[in-house]
Amino acid sequence: MTAFLGVESSLTGRRWVGPSIDIDRAAEALEQSTTLPRAVCQLLARRGIGAQEAESFLAPALRDLLPDPRGLKDMEKAATRFLKAAKSGEKIAIFADYDVDGGSSAALLLTWLRAMNRDATLYVPDRIDEGYGPNEEAMAQLASQHDLIVCVDCGTLSHDPIAAATAADVVVLDHHLGGETLPDCHAVVNPNRQDETGDLAHLCAAAVVFLMLVEVNRQLREDGTQGPDLMAMLDLVALATVADVAPLIGVNRALVRQGLKVMARRDRPGIVALSDISRMDTAPNSYHLGFLLGPRVNAGGRIGKADLGARLLSTPDMHEAKAMAERLDQLNTERRDIEASVRAAAMAQAEERGLDAPLVWAAGENWHPGVVGIVASRLKEATNRPAIVIGFDEDGIGKGSGRSVSGIDLGASIQRLASEGLLVKGGGHKMAAGLTVERDKLEPAMERLSELLAQQGADRIGPSDLKLDGMLMPGAASIDLVNQLETAGPFGASAPAPRFAFPDVEIRFAKRIGDSHLKVTFGDGLNARLEAICFGAFDTDLGPALENHKGARFHLAGRLDINTWGGRQTVQLRLEDAAPAG
């Protein structure tokens, strides 16, 4: 296919790819058979949505898409045991992962229990002292004081720690890739168990927890009792789904869409407080969840008190929520500073090692384990290669995190390394994984991982293409158009927001903002202007080229959104790439 607008290598080194002839034809057919604007039809055509499916796609109904919880193995067992504990006043402990998905999962259970006039002990392990998932000491201690332990967003590979909980029943509600055997416990509900069909493999842990509560409420109804309002809890499921980068397909689209509506009601103190401190001044969307709320909830688990995020999301007290939101906002600022330092060192090390290998990796002494995952994401984005970043402590134990690219299953390869004895432990899913490695095994482990990833074709991946949904002129970028495009949302993983090219435009204003961002105003020579913001522009050649444009014309590419400032709304372009015109 010919490069879109002839851009074979943009200022960020990417080839621009536009809609195929088939997609253009499908979009034209949609436009003729519906009342939808061309830009929306182009987006639907790229997703493979025809005229008969368009209406249901644009208005996904949760009642039509929500799967029967009993379709997951052990679900009925897990729900029955949880309900028995809640009804009979047994002592319940919730062992949660320290990220947004774990915190949201815990908050779902705590909110449901509170509505039933019950409570539970929340336990979130310290990332540095305890690491990811259940550990034997914590599980044994919890078991000695509780009748039921519910592990959320963790536990599927925790055979020994769960075996240590001899005095309590354990239920696992997880979504991470399962091994050949499951821990010996009361129930393991996980769409990524090896004996599952995989039809619901895209669910995050909070969605699995939500499905269990659907089953619990069903069992309550069978006994003639009305359970708590689950629809009011979908804000937590939406936050977790987007922040955990779960694909926004199938039921996930409906969960997030409905969850955003719930969130807009501002009923949950923790999310209200976090939204306010994040200066969200419009109705929430998936961008807000992924880039404003999610990082702040995660900040507690990364560099602060591990349970802060879960406590914020579950508290009914607005005063307490405000105090916790302020602390998380402070921690997020500290996290950014730590991340910047580690990122610079990791990138320098990776560049020295070479960026065209099947695996890009870096390791350093005392790199904070709370930021290695974010830095791995940055390396992956910069190189379009699977990336691993590892921080070693004074005892020679390295804790690392990895991020992958489409088509390369990193979690399975990490699990293979662990089974071969090259890692202390490791696991995850296709796009993200965690590991623990001893210093003397670092080089052989990374060499072996590189081999496994090469077998999947990671060494043959070129620079990522920039996929575009079509062309627009500045005058066509209206608030109405942005609102119409939003009807095809929510946007996120596996459902990218529409991206348009603005061809042959002139830069009328360019100003550097902070250290690396750029603000631009551009036009087409017909008195139509559009403002753009480019985050991280000066991390590439993009910033300098546009700032020092010297009257040259450019093709610009990015995503449209609505900027609200002082009560006034305007359309702006989130500029992602550019190329000289002509």
Automatic annotation (TrEMBL):
Q: Name one GO molecular function term.
A: nucleic acid binding
List the source organism.
Cognatishimia activa
- Domain DDH, residue spans: 91-241
The UniProt record lists the keyword Hydrolase = yes
Q: Record's InterPro entries?
A: DDH_dom, DHH_sf, DHHA1_dom, RecJ, RecJ_OB, SSDNA_exonuclease_RecJ
GO BP annotations of the record are: DNA recombination; DNA repair
Q: Which Pfam families match?
A: DHH (PF01368), DHHA1 (PF02272), RecJ_OB (PF17768)
- Name of the protein in question: Single-stranded-DNA-specific exonuclease RecJ
Classification of source organism: Bacteria, Pseudomonadati, Pseudomonadota, Alphaproteobacteria, Rhodobacterales
Instruction: Give the gene that encodes this protein.
Output: recJ
